[in-house]
Amino acid sequence: MEIKATAHKFGDNINTDDIIPARYLNTYDPKELARHCMEGADEEFVRKLGHPSARGHCIVAGKNFGCGSSREQAPLAIKGADISCVIAESFARIFYRNAINIGLPILESERASKRIDSGDEILIDLNRGKVTNLSKKENYKVQPFPEFIQEIIRAGGLMNYAKEKLKRKRLNP
Which helix (H) or strand (E) holds 30? Predict the structure, then answer.
């Protein structure tokens, strides 16, 4: 799976309240959460993404992205805002698992985190574990996901993955 995206850069320790402030946690609707995505870190972030149907955006951050509370709405807000991927030097473990569970690809890479700047055009190859900075003509190696996680992401999240597996099992007992 390949993703072509424009990078939006953030620093270290972006917490879940930066991603989706607590005052918006009265919903699990991804599109409603998306309206306030990253508002705690950059009030203009959603406006910078352009039209809601515009695709091809990626968040790039430093260390400990998604720290703080275990709120599931944080990765849901990112995915709802049509962010294709998050690349960071490191992630809070609960955020990492929540992101995978909803089918949001997240990649750890110290080099990519440090070298990619806002506005850089990047190409992400999830299968091969490669990020290409098209703007700087650089490549960064990332750990590819194991096959079962790739299947979860392709399915759009853990629930869809489980439904597909059950459906296949019923059809092929």
Answer: helix 30-34
- 29-36 long-range contacts (CB < 8 A, ≥24 apart) are 29/80, 30/76, 30/77, 30/79, 30/80, 31/80, 32/80, 33/73, 33/76, 33/77, 33/80, 34/77, 34/80, 34/81, 34/82, 36/77
The single-letter code of the amino acid at 165 is: K
Residue carrying the six token digits 């309240």 = 17
Pairing between β-strand 121-125 and β-strand 2-9 as defined by DSSP bridges: antiparallel
Of 97, 75, 91, 73, which is closest to residue 152 (Cα–Cα)?
Answer: 97
pLDDT tens digits in sequence order for the chain, 173 residues long? 899 999 999 999 999 999 999 999 988 899 999 999 999 999 999 998 875 545 689 999 999 999 988 888 999 999 999 999 999 999 999 999 999 999 999 999 999 999 999 999 999 999 889 999 999 999 999 988 888 999 999 999 999 999 988 888 777 76
In the sheet where 138-141 sits, what is the strand order? 106-108, 83-88, 57-61, 2-9, 121-125, 130-133, 138-141
* Beta strands per DSSP E along the chain: 2-9, 57-61, 83-88, 106-108, 121-125, 130-133, 138-141
